[in-house]
Amino acid sequence: MRRFTSIADIVSGPGLASALTDALTLKAEPWRYPEVGRRKTLGLLFMNPSLRTRMSTQKAATLLGMDTMVLNAGSDSWTLETRDGVIMEGGATEHIKEAAAVMGQYCDILGIRTFAGLQDRDADYNERILESFIRYAGVPVVSLESATRHPLQSFADLITIETLKRKPRPKVVLTWAPHPKALPQAVANSFSEWMMQADVDFIITHPDGYDLAPSFTQGAVVTHDQRAAFEGADFIYAKNWSSYTDYGQILSKDMDWTVTAEKMRLTNDARFMHCLPVRRNMIVADEVLDGPWSVVIEQAANRVVSAQTMLLHMLRELAR
Amino acid sequence: MRRFTSIADIVSGPGLASALTDALTLKAEPWRYPEVGRRKTLGLLFMNPSLRTRMSTQKAATLLGMDTMVLNAGSDSWTLETRDGVIMEGGATEHIKEAAAVMGQYCDILGIRTFAGLQDRDADYNERILESFIRYAGVPVVSLESATRHPLQSFADLITIETLKRKPRPKVVLTWAPHPKALPQAVANSFSEWMMQADVDFIITHPDGYDLAPSFTQGAVVTHDQRAAFEGADFIYAKNWSSYTDYGQILSKDMDWTVTAEKMRLTNDARFMHCLPVRRNMIVADEVLDGPWSVVIEQAANRVVSAQTMLLHMLRELAR
Amino acid sequence: MRRFTSIADIVSGPGLASALTDALTLKAEPWRYPEVGRRKTLGLLFMNPSLRTRMSTQKAATLLGMDTMVLNAGSDSWTLETRDGVIMEGGATEHIKEAAAVMGQYCDILGIRTFAGLQDRDADYNERILESFIRYAGVPVVSLESATRHPLQSFADLITIETLKRKPRPKVVLTWAPHPKALPQAVANSFSEWMMQADVDFIITHPDGYDLAPSFTQGAVVTHDQRAAFEGADFIYAKNWSSYTDYGQILSKDMDWTVTAEKMRLTNDARFMHCLPVRRNMIVADEVLDGPWSVVIEQAANRVVSAQTMLLHMLRELAR
């Protein structure tokens, strides 16, 4: 793979089934390929804070014998301009064209983390920053979350479901939940995109006005009745996102959508999932997160497996 | 050791004498065990700035062959909530419960650095943040300074005294000194706790109102007469702390308490110690810090030895 | 070399021709000496943001088998006092004397990055911070850019010119260009100093009032006629700097000085150089930077070669 930015890169590359098999192998035996990344450098550019992505990707690189260099745009380094053709007379000191190309000189694989600005839907959904970075980097690029997707998270989510499911085709529910701030749709988009290619019954539930972009959910079952959605579910995946149609707006902070123990009891003893960080008692009640349903920590652990699998495929292709 | 947060963890573990012997061995031969940490990852979480702790602990890990991942809460990563049961609708994006548990999935040993808030004495002295982190981390934890103690510093201080003492039982003085800001009692508490178990004559001197918590100093000789305390001293350990009784308050910035050359001449040619960073000409005059008395740089160098010894014990226990 | 802060350290050390030969060898074979830095630690202290210097120096250290520890003053660590004799009652928590000496205990070679304050010309041109750091570090120090010079950049620039020149003695033009903020003279000073010792015809062009410090440009051809300077040039090196005589002031933002394609056509098909980060359409038009003239990315790539050569020399001297 020359890039890993969405499930499409896996499908057109190793194939989803093959990637999943590799992932389960690495989960069982993390140190299986300690030399494959020898003398290769992974560069990670963060334009936003990160705990899991930062640490799990570093750890994945270490397991493969790679060296890692981490750069925080704006604190470690310069603030980046991402628009084309502008006169750079403002706060941004460097254009992403140069930043990407230079990092590509120092690293064999690059990762970039960027968030949706939530101001300009077209700019976000065209993935201007990510695509610009890929275009100028000159080396393979892995998305560490972009404006509209979080593929390393979604792959970890799939690994989690595959290893914890108790029936061949589990029922998976993605539920919106309240949050104090406007968040991107990336995790929800990405999770939907992956679930629609997985062997699961997938249903999305959210309040009125929170429909995700059609390109990510076409054909998915959507309901505004959260309780009906929960019935018989095997996995509850909670996430907040801001409105796609009324772009970037918070239309509701309705705490009736918080995931509670009472709601979990409607399910088929479902596993509770969230990508973290999670707002306790907004997204989900303490009783759920601290109770037997929660698999969020194992899910976070699978971030290492997810990243390691993708890096392994990229390293193998570099070695050809 | 499953945790290193105070001298009690050494006493109930390898024993202080044994730890000190190991430390002196490692000081003489830093690369003695370059493989013991192979394929083990140390994660360091900083909730406050740090130079010595950050670098010395990384160096100690490198000497043992460990990989290190460093995370700055609030800049690299999310701001953390530390209270239980709250509705997380404010600035904090992640609860320390999840942060600790997730880091524990990625790392074999964790270190955490946190300061006293100096607002709520009970919260600080119950070590809410440190204990919460330990409870949820699921892996051994080393304190990189907590609200009430700085054990890696105190162990380095003991190593410094052991290697530089010129008599079997030296006189060691802990003196308060002025500082422009309100500082925690952690270093002073911790140093007292260690000195009271060491083979030294220990005396504390500070202005009225600056008594440390009784649990750390019970049985220690305390005087408000700094000059009397200095007489015949072999080691002068200067430190500022805010009031424990009038919690977190600055009761004095009296520059008569600054350590000067004239006061050092009252001593038995004492060594001058400070944990650093030090406010020159507030805590101590340039003439002392730049003069023959100062051993603050060697003391800082011993931070590597201190951290390496503790990591070595933890790694050995992991290997069992 | 015990220090690398200017071309003088190379001239009085290995000699410029020898350093250049080593550089070309390392450029061709980066992994030639993967063991020379084994068990040696490089410490990098940044008092300002950095992308190229940070990453290229880390990469150079990795290529030589060194471990690296990076510290950002003010965010990772404490803010540093650099003046002598002051009562430290303000914002700075630690004196550079202690910071340097402590880092010297943890590292075998140190790098420091600092900028001109542009307030006090004497302080900047006396290199107070850099020289203080070197004085107290106790280990070899490499400048990662200082108030008045950027030697790793200049050496990379020389490598770039040497490898891309199409005649034995090319014409090299340093041209001032507009920028929205007041910048140090360091890169321009340093480039001048190096070019005057290189086998090139060197000419400087800038608006009235932008003469560089005489010590860096004595004997150089200087003109205020940018177009005349560009005629027949083989290399155009663009850079903004604030006034040296009217110290730290912006005397002009005249966009007539921006490097455009039309101006590049006056040259002998010159290569366009800039140290980056570059303000697009202020310093240089998109058409130049994205056109066939630009070698800024290769120039940035040579930063690894430059740093690796200097570290190699320092490591060899440590091994003696």
Molecular structure report:
3 copies of one chain form a homotrimer. Chain A is an alpha/beta fold. Chain A folds into 2 domains: 165 residues, 3-Layer(aba) Sandwich (Rossmann fold), CATH 3.40.50; 149 residues, Rossmann fold (3-Layer(aba) Sandwich). In chain A, 38% of the residues lie in helices and 15% in strands. The first copy, chain A, has 13 helices and 12 strands. In chain A, the strands form 3 sheets. Chain A has a 5-stranded parallel beta sheet with strand order 1-7-6-2-3, sandwiched between helices. Chain A has a 5-stranded parallel beta sheet with strand order 10-9-8-11-12. The radius of gyration of chain A is 19 Å and the shape is globular. The mean pLDDT of chain A is 96. At the A-B interface, helix 3 and helix 13 of A face strand 3, strand 5 and helix 4 of B.
